[in-house]
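<context>
A single protein, sequence plus fold
<entry> Chain with its tokenised backbone below
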Amino acid sequence: MSAPVSKSPATLHDVAREAGVSLATASRSLNGSTRKVNEAYRQRVVEAAQRLGYTTNLFAQAVAKGSTTTVALLVADIADPYFSSIAAGVIDAANEEGLVVTIAVTGRNAQRELDTVRALRGQRPRVMILAGSRTTGSAFEEQLRGELASFEDTGGKVAFISQDAAPFATVLLDNRGGARDLAVALASLGYRDFAVITGPPEIRTAEERLEGFTAGLAERGIPLPPERIIHADFTRDGGYRGTRELLASGASVDLVFAVNDVMAVGVVSALREAGIVPGAGIGVAGYDDIPTVRDITPALTTVRIPLEDVGRRALQLATGSAHDDAGSAPGPGRTAAIRTETVIRGSTPPR
């Protein structure tokens, strides 16, 4: 008994022949071409495709058109509520524009970020959004910019969420200004002996927040001695270890500022472990206003960034659908500045 002969999938040529139209007409009828096709011909093509069981090759279409309907979002750590909140905003805006979001994690590793961008270029996303602080002195930054420039030269769009990344579209976060305003507010509450748990010196976000906080204290005549600045990992565990180091030094402080909220959660845990009641014994403040810190005890004083709006704005900047509050498109360089707000909660009661 002979083996059954497998039937090859129908091709576009088969559909055109079945419908009695040219290959070009069949392609335009099925592949969403902007060139109009006579409705009678289009209907014949659709019916022929259904009879033959033909399905369009979406990947081939993407190659032909130069992009897919995909948005590639690169984040440092998707488990960090800061990045997951931004991702929620990107996804919300992408849904409105009929786009699909994929997420890649770089782990704040510059080489991994570069390698990821190179890999993603082969998948032809329509947009790439890079979220997270840039790294000072990165040996890979120039190569990264080259890859992204080439991506835009072939029709892709790029947006950064970070420091100014001109000529690429950028959602600018005022780290210095937000931290400065927080320092002034805390000084107004009566705090005088400050310490800062910050990230590695090469992370620009951490350094900008440290600089802004120091400047705000200086405006109130309050020094921040170098020994009260502790560098640690930009994570919850980094905040925890940095606080233990601070306490072991014997420094007398009445408030600890952690340069992001997840680090501040680690600060709170370390203080409790040491028998110090956060807020009542030593005040604690963070930065970002991730959802978690509104529910811990005491609720955390912080600087609010509208994180979902940040993600939404980045997608809109990249696709060209962003407008300012007055309804105008962004100015030269395609940048959008995001306002911050100091939020005082129970972790920093008046002294």
About this structure: The chain is about 40% helix and 15% strand. The CA atoms of residues 126 and 156 lie 5 Å apart. The longest strand covers residues 70-75.
